[in-house]
Design brief:
alpha/beta, globular
Length: 890
């Protein structure tokens, strides 16, 4: 084995090995239990970010664990055509060439997107492989491949025939930049600091009329009423009368409607039925006309008036405000904070517009989605996300599924040019289903990307065909995703699966949080917080990235990414490599500065000393395996990773491997050498198997050196705990021994004693069993605490002179000063540290006593300073105690 682990030299060849050996494949095997995950398909023109790295790591962990448990584990890869996002990418490219999609025409534009898709696809596949994703690449799918396109068409036609899909005219969210309708879920509401304009609408006879407050003065050009609350006494006399709409010189009625909030603005609101959903509802109740003054491209229409026609909506806002001010009809302007809807793809402020679109009726589908959870057929982990899911399904609106785009699944509906009727079929029609005319025109719109994505768990397995894979692997086992697409995707998959297949698409939904930076900010290019996972892999290795992310997971909470986590995970991988190298390459190597000096080890003493350690590590090993399996089964992935980290680093490497060097020394008994090496190899074997789902590359690389004839680690059985290996007595004894050794190490560090300096140590034991323990384990103490002599004394004996001591495991641990400590130099060092600490304490106390700091600084800054003060006070007490002990010892 190489002395140092270099992931850049290991990861690529290891993945090629998995591919070559077919260990990532899954087959229909009735003799096995199926376990299936469908990958949340990344956008085909996107780049995988740190959130993808988290998502793929969790899925890969589960797949690898279940594969090693003996399940037939299938992870289906694939990508999403991502309608709006992909079309935006291509249109941006064309813009750089001075072209629009209309210059190319639909056929050529779509052709270019297919070329773009192929170019981006290979990059995404390569990224997934670099994460270590154990996907069955033979089964890769794309949401617009031939099979999935057929599934989309089957779903649309089926729902259409059942009366669940319809075409209607109603107000929807419209993106002026993308030139398409959006569902409510595709609109992100950002809090914006804007203004509230107070406008006066005079009475027709020149009277004062009424003042309304609005956040969108440009829409007043399309007002058809003013509304007040029916119980508002301020406007009782106005209801039923009319006011004059400024700039348009037309009379509009004042109506009473309970929707109006008397506390907002003046209590009187302008009503624009064509440009606001709430106003549209008022308009329906009062039979008001809708005047469209904003076009689909965000400019003002002829209905807005000649003075404003053709202006951008925001330019029109400025013009309207100026004109009203000029006429003396602008009462005042106030700052106002409100939520503004933006397109989730391009961030353009959406415009509520009345358009003709295709919709899915959601009421009955929503009931099916609720039943799936109520009956326990789908379980959310953590369970609290079930409430989020339920709240949305209980307040469903019909789903707008048509998009005015060119890239996507074309709506399979044709309009007859003769009779005007619709024909919706599974195959392209040659004649109108109603009159037989051959003059047909297909609907120009495409389907919402989420429509095809909602079929993903079963369309990827061959639906609408009844394939063996669909029969065996469906319902799939688990869906892994972040909480931000519970509405977009999770709920819709459950509804579609339940309705079209009669069964839920997955049994469990594991919800994780979003990755944020150390300050809790969203990871994004615009904020300068973007993190490229491939750059992290280049620097730290894929395993370090995976392990760091796993250890950050808390159930459904956002993750705070920090580079320090990557450093710690990389160090862990290096620690594992070094310990494995010792076990595999250097079974008799036990020297080094911690070796027991010649003459201090009796023949065979190493064996006796390490027998306790062997019993102890076997017991701790079983506890580790039991905990890891339990935590994985509960989706407590971070807890499982922490358990492995603590055991491998803190128990196996730092304690057992070091103690085992006694048995592997040249003068150790041969039988002890063999027994210890056998145990080391057995423990390492199971450690590698336990760690493999989390850090697959390094564990496979070590495994092939440890067990070269066993085949890939990916298909080895996952280790299970053996309760017969538990040894509580050995654990208790080893706890005492570790505490005593750690106490010696602490004294060495506190008093600045060089590590290579061997110490004379006395331990005043608490009882006879502790004496027996220390006598038997003296070689271990000598090696791990670097002692030259160990004296075991009774608690009743006099404390030896010239010693420094601490209490550990009920015993008093004493280090003999002798010439190990330069007392004057050490006292001077402690004094210097105390002087600096007192200065720092004074500054901190003064800062916290200052109202200017406590009241004006950010709360988190003040809290950090208070924590710093408490820590410094504790350090001062420790230094004073050390100084007093040193002075007393001399």
């Amino acid at each position: 084995m190489d002395k140092a682990y270099d992931p850049t030299q290991v990861e690529g060849p290891i993945y090629e090995y998995w591919m070559r050996e077919g260990v990532l494949h899954a087959e229909v095997d009735p003799a096995k239990t199926p376990y299936c995950i469908v990958i949340p398909p990344p956008n085909v023109t996107g780049v995988l970010h740190i959130g993808h790295a988290l998502d793929e790591t969790v899925q890969d962990l589960l797949i690898r664990w279940h594969r090693m448990l003996g399940d037939e584990a299938l992870w289906i890869p694939g990508t999403d055509h991502a309608g709006i996002a992909t079309q935006n990418v291509m249109e941006a490219r064309l813009a750089r060439e001075g072209l629009t999609r209309h210059d190319l025409g639909r056929e050529e534009f779509v052709k270019r997107i297919w070329q773009l898709k192929e170019a981006h696809h290979s990059r995404i596949v390569e990224q997934l492989k670099r994460f270590g994703s154990s996907l069955d690449w033979r089964r890769e799918r794309f949401t617009m491949d031939e099979g999935l396109s057929r599934a989309v068409r089957e779903a649309f036609v089926t729902l259409y025939e059942q009366g669940l899909i319809y075409r209607g005219t109603r107000m929807i969210n419209w993106c002026p930049r993308c030139h398409t309708g959006l569902s409510d879920l595709e609109v992100e509401h950002e809090t914006t600091f804007g203004h509230l304009w107070y406008l006066r609408y005079p009475a027709p006879d020149g009277g004062p009329g009424v003042v309304v407050a609005t956040t969108r003065p440009e829409t007043m050009l399309g007002d058809t009423a003013v509304a007040v609350h029916p119980e508002d006494p301020r406007y009782g006399d106005l209801v039923g009368k009319t006011v004059l709409l400024p700039l348009q010189d037309r009379e509009i009625p004042v109506v009473a409607d309970e929707w109006v909030d008397p506390e907002f603005g003046t209590g009187a609101v302008k009503v624009t039925p064509a440009h606001d959903p709430n106003d549209a509802a008022i308009g329906e109740r009062h039979h008001l006309p809708g005047v469209v003054v904003i076009a689909r491209d965000g400019t003002m229409t002829a209905e807005a008036g000649a003075a404003y026609q053709g202006l951008d909506r925001y330019e029109c806002r400025k013009r309207v405000v100026a004109d009203l001010e000029e006429r003396g009809l602008l009462e005042r302007i106030e700052p106002h904070e409100h939520a503004v809807g933006q397109c989730h793809r391009c961030d353009t402020v959406v415009e509520p517009l009345v358009t003709t679109q295709w919709f899915v009726k959601m009421e009955s589908l929503g009931r099916e989605g609720l039943c799936a959870v109520d009956e326990g057929r789908v379980r959310f982990v953590p369970s609290r996300w079930e409430k989020v899911y339920r709240d949305w399904l209980e307040h469903l609106q019909d789903w707008c599924i048509s998009r005015q785009l060119w890239w996507g699944h074309e709506i399979p509906v044709w309009y007859c040019d003769d009779c005007g009727e619709q024909t919706c079929t599974r195959e392209d029609p040659t004649a109108c289903a109603h009159c037989g005319s051959a003059s047909l025109t297909q609907d120009p719109d495409v389907l919402d990307t989420w429509f095809s994505s909602s079929l993903w768990p079963f369309s990827t397995l061959g639906w609408p065909e009844e394939t063996p894979e669909l029969d065996f692997f469906y319902p799939t086992s688990c869906l892994v995703t972040a909480y931000d697409i519970i509405y977009f995707w999770v709920a819709r998959m459950i509804m579609m699966g339940s309705h079209l297949r009669g069964e839920v698409p997955f049994r469990e939904v594991f919800i994780h949080g979003l990755v944020r930076d150390e300050k809790g900010r969203k990871i994004s290019k615009s904020l300068g917080t973007a993190i490229d996972p491939l750059e992290l892999i280049d620097e730290y290795g894929a395993d370090a990235l995976r392990f760091a992310l796993i250890r950050l997971i808390t159930h459904g909470q956002d993750l705070a990414y920090s580079p320090d986590r990557l450093v710690g995970a990389r160090n862990f991988c290096n620690k594992l490599w070094n310990a494995s190298r010792f076990v595999i390459m250097n079974p008799s190597e036990g020297g080094g500065e911690r070796a027991v000096p010649e003459g201090n080890r009796e023949p065979g003493a190493g064996g006796g000393a390490s027998s306790l350690a062997s019993r102890w590590i076997l017991s701790r090993h079983q506890r580790m395996l039991r905990t890891v399996n339990e935590e994985l089964s509960r989706y407590n992935l971070a807890q499982a990773a922490d358990t492995l980290y603590d055991y491998v680093w803190g128990e196996f490497c730092d304690w057992y491997v070091e103690i085992a060097k006694l048995d592997l020394a040249e003068d150790a008994l041969p039988e002890r050498k063999i027994a210890t090496q056998t145990l080391l190899r057995r423990l390492l074997n199971e450690i590698l198997r336990a760690l493999h789902p989390m850090i697959p590359f390094i564990t496979e690389a070590i495994w092939q050196r440890l067990e070269p004839e066993a085949g890939s680690l990916a298909v080895q059985p996952y280790p299970q705990a053996d309760p017969s290996g538990l040894d509580e007595a050995a654990e208790r004894e080893m706890d005492d021994l570790q505490a005593l050794i750690s106490a010696i190490r602490t004294l060495r560090a506190d008093y600045n004693i060089p590590r290579q300096r061997r110490l004379e140590v006395s331990i005043m034991v608490a009882d006879e069993s502790q004496r027996e323990l220390l006598v038997a384990q003296e070689p271990v103490v000598q090696m791990l605490a670097s002692t030259a002599a160990l004296h075991v004394l009774d608690a009743e004996e006099a404390t030896p002179a010239g010693t420094l001591g601490v209490v550990a495991a009920g015993a008093r641990v004493l280090v003999h000063l002798g010439d190990a400590v330069d007392v004057p130099a050490e006292l001077a060092r402690l004094k210097k540290k105390l002087v600096k600490l007192e200065s720092d304490l004074s500054r901190s106390e003064a800062k916290l006593a200052s109202p200017a700091f406590v009241e004006k600084a950010k709360p988190e800054v003040v809290a950090t300073e208070r924590e710093r003060l408490v820590a410094m006070q504790a350090d001062r007490e420790k230094l004073l105690s050390q100084r007093a002990a040193l002075e007393a010892a001399v």
